Amino acid sequence: MAQAFATFQEELEDILxxxxxxxxAKINLTLEVKGTRPDGYHEISTIFQSIxxxxxxxxxxxxxxxxxxxxxxxxxxxxxxxxxxxxxxxxSYPFRGVRIVLEKNIPVAAGLGGGSSDAAAVLVGINYLxxxxxxxxxxxxxxxxxxxDVPFCVLxxxxxxxxxxxxxxxxxxxxxxxxxxxxxxxxxxxRKIYAxxxxxxxxxxxxxxxxxxxxxALYRGDREALIASLGNTLEKVTxxxxxxxxxxKGSLLDLGAEKAxxxxxxPAVFGVVPSRTEAERIARELKPRYPETFVTHTI
Length: 299
Known about the structure:
Blueprint: H1 2-16, E1 18-36, E2 42-62, E3 65-70, H2 81-92, E4 97-103, H3 114-129, H4 136-143, H5 150-155, E5 158-162, E6 167-170, E7 178-183, H6 190-199, H7 211-220, H8 223-229, E8 231-232, H9 235-241, H10 243-254, E9 259-262, E10 269-273, H11 276-286, E11 292-297
């Protein structure tokens, strides 16, 4: 009996030294570029929204920082934001190291905030695993040093982001929106899209976001008004540089999406649809051309 209890206690200690979290992707319900900033970023105003599509991160106590990535080639070293998040915390707080096992499901460099969400999950997870006692606000503030989307990914939900996206106002969640997300075979550098914005590489055919109407619709819980207000001004750059992204948006609309909007700087596009059944139908139509097609919803 004593041996069994000791074994159970060892197993329990192992469980307590490990934590698994979901790192949720994000979309931008609206996104407007307001201008450039002295620090090289752009002033934006955006409504962030977490979605159910997620990576999975498991953290275990270790003697150093270690990273294993499953589901995608590369991204295994110090260039990974998950690694950088662990290093950032270890610079200021006392823990030896952590083993990070990252299972990727969110497409890379798609405008869905996958890297930022992974970094946020590592910050939150290490805080719990090693009992560092940091508040969500403190973690979000730290996350700003890793990227402009990381503070939102720490908090999640629905939020208005201003500045470079790091100043956040928590908003009521929308009624659940079913989404079809489509990413073409290529990825896009956010830096390149903003450089195109600065250079005036624009097309005229894009969806104008109506942020004030979107905010009002969120507070009223008005699904139809919210959908009507969605838009992203970066479409006019991304569509000009990558015409296939515009084709994807058109395909979503032709197949019955109520609205289709660029995710961040792209190249993924999300289509809002009335139901899961409709989302699955549209996804079946698009998946042969675009294998990275996902059915998900807002959370």
